[in-house]
Amino acid sequence: MGIETDQEVVQMVGRDPRYGDLLYLSIQECATERIYTQQQALQYMDDKVTYAGAGNIKDGRSKLILRDVFVAHVPVNNGNFQPKCIYTAVMLRRMLDAILNSDTFDDKDYVGNKRLELSGQLVSLLFEDLFKTMNTYAVDRMNKNSDMARSSPLDFSQLIMQQDVITSGLERAISTGNWDIKRFKMHRKGVSQVLSRLSYMASLGYMTRITPQFEKTRKTSGPRALQPSQCFSLGVEDLSLLSGEEIHAPGSFLVMFNGLILGKHRQPQRFANNMRTFRRSGKIGEFVSVFVNEKQDGIRSFDDFLRDGLIEYLDVNEENNALLFRADSLLYLLVYAQRPLLTTKTIELVGYDKLGAGQNATVAVMSYSGYDIEDAIVMNKSSLDRGFGRCIAMKKYTVTSEKYGDGISDRIAKPQRDRDGVLIKQNMRALDEDGFVAPGQIIRNHDIYVNKQTPKVTNRTPGTALTDRDYRDSPAVYKGVDGETTVVDRVMLCSDTNDKLTIKCIIRHTRRPEVGDKFSSRHGQKGVCGTIVQQEDFPFSEKGICPDLIMNPHGFPRISYNLSTGFYLWHPD
Predict the structure, then answer these.
(1) Can you state the percent helix, strand and coil of the chain, rounding each to 5?
(2) Where is pLDDT greater, at 276 or 316?
(3) CA-CA distance, 505 to 447, in Å (whole number)?
(4) Could you tell me which residue ranges the RNA polymerase Rpb2 domain spans (predicted)?
(5) Do 361-390+514-570 and 392-511 agree at the fold level?
(6) Which pLDDT value is given to residue 321?
(7) Domain 392-511: which topology?
(8) What dotted CATH number matches 361-390+514-570?
(9) Are 252 and 265 in contact, with CB atoms under 8 Å apart?
(10) How large is the greatest C-alpha to C-alpha distance in the chain, in angstroms?
């Protein structure tokens, strides 16, 4: 890469004699392998590595790897490997500094050593791939049309409308969460996730979550540990004429921009203050972070993550009409949510004491019957009758009225009645006169909540009127549990992106705790309900207090000491 002697390597790393002592073994190994020239080193690497991007080239594979793969973010212009040499020397120097001084040891899990890929960047990559795919498809169609002997005039707008490549690609990626971009060799899963609405803390955690891109199967604690660190900065300068001694000169700080070493500065704090002044005056992005890394003697800088047009900022007035309507697919509501008796500062900061998501239970820690093995719990039936652990499950059911050609579409029919006004089908008792259920109606298993009818034939002659015989019943039937009644909470009529009538029904079901339901404390001590016992058979204290649930003490050894101690503190009974 432009360096031909071991002396240049040592000088590029630094002038400290200790660096030469640490590099002596590597230099000695080169002499043992009889590598004395640059050509011999490249030939040695050619014999050891393979590169699919080299094709049929046998000699020079290692140089292609150094150019395309090794430190790929540093560009090589006109065969100039000097920037890569400098970047490699800085990497090697930091590694040697970590050996000589453990205080300079760097952490790869430190947030400042990572980059955040925001939604705008991910969507822009996906859009670029889909846009180029659409262009390729359009070029192929135009070439085929021009090759025909008697080709009709090509309407480019119709060509684009027939293949909604961009729309379908964006909808598929956002709905499934799979980002498959072959052009950039990106294959990721779980990029977009369904927002959890189980509690305020769960929703807040989902909206502020940063997902690391590391292998989940690796049993390493570093990526899973908490990193409360700051990150990212910005700067520019030229680096074409610098030597190794100038790079590591005392009092000089490296200027880095998006991982590229662009130059050095002798007054880093003044340089950083000037950059902050530019940021405050609006000359550079307001989210650019400037950081002076005195520990490594350099300024590490990154690009502005929020570019113009990717994210739209809304003020307070615009927030009122930004969300038109929302219907969660599945929503759980605790009936008797309580404020925790024991709170912390964090709970008060996030508002958990004002919007609780749990209940204060009287817990007895003892062994009772054989249904509380390890982490199983025994519930008090009278407590359940009084509403302990009761919740409301709200589920969304969507029915869409499809549109066909020539103005033919599905229709919503009224419930069928005989001459005396009695319903012909009893499973239509929940329907209103407009053909779908009304809010507040009780709905049971196998009841119809939308009486939809579809045409038997969709390719009729234009202008032909359809009669009742031309439709067949395609009702939306509710599937619940026999013996349980549910209530229609809300009904919304709207249209989707294709201007089709959409009916969304929110059905409410009050659930009572049963055997097999899972309960948990705030420390993650979870357990299933093993059995439900009458209060007359429950133990009680000398004051006559009967617990809401009983937990077996044999379940405590399954968790760590800290969680066990915390669980005892949270449940003094």
Answers:
(1) 35, 20, 50
(2) 276
(3) 13
(4) 1-117, 255-300, 302-323
(5) no
(6) 60
(7) OB fold (Dihydrolipoamide Acetyltransferase, E2P) (2.40.50)
(8) 2.40.270.10
(9) yes
(10) 106
Domain boundaries in the chain?
Answer: 6-105, 119-207, 361-390+514-570, 392-511
User: Can you tell me the distance from the alpha carbon of 473 to that of 455, in angstroms, rounded to the nearest whole number?
Assistant: 9
Instruction: Give the pair of three-digit tokens for residue 415.
Output: 């419930």
Helix (H, G, I), strand (E, B) or coil at 66: helix
Cα 195 from chain centre:
10
Q: Which residues contact residue 93 at a Cβ distance below 8 angstroms, ignoring those fewer than 6 apart?
A: 13, 14, 19, 248
Q: What is the pLDDT of residue 497?
A: 76
Per-residue model confidence as pLDDT tens digits over 149-189? 666 666 666 666 666 788 888 888 888 888 888 777 788 88
8 Å CB contact between 173 and 192: yes
The two beta strands, 518-520 and 330-334, are: unpaired
What values do phi and psi take at 361, rounded to 5? Answer: -110, 150
Amino acid making up residue 494:
C
Residues 497-554: pLDDT tens digits?
778 888 899 999 998 999 999 888 877 778 889 999 999 989 998 888 999 999 888 7
3-class DSSP assignment, residue 158:
helix
Report the chain's terminal Cα–Cα distance, integer Å. 71
Higher pLDDT, residue 559 or 278: 278
Q: Which residue, chain included where needed, has tokens 């009127």?
A: 465
- How many CB atoms within 10 Å of residue 525? 20
Confidence (pLDDT) at 144: 75
